[in-house]
Amino acid sequence: MEAIHMNHDGKHLIRPQGPMTAADAQELGAAIDSLLAEGGYCFTLDLRDVPCLDDLSAGAIQTVAAWLPRRGASFQIANALESVRDAIRNASAK
Prior knowledge:
Transcription Regulator spoIIAA, globular, 3 helices
């Protein structure tokens, strides 16, 4: 998975490109963890270029959304297609 990453004073915008699989989501989680260790405190996951994701990646995004606030950082999802939003929402209901 390719991703665009922008950083401004600890605020990170991450914009994955293309379908997302579980392996991509694990890579994304590791990258966010690394950015957090470097002082990142605000993360936006812009999903406008993600046409679909599998159940495991949706669950991984929910996991990241849950642990970042516990580590003192904010997290939001932006610009997701309705089907992608639904997949993530359904992953949190499981």
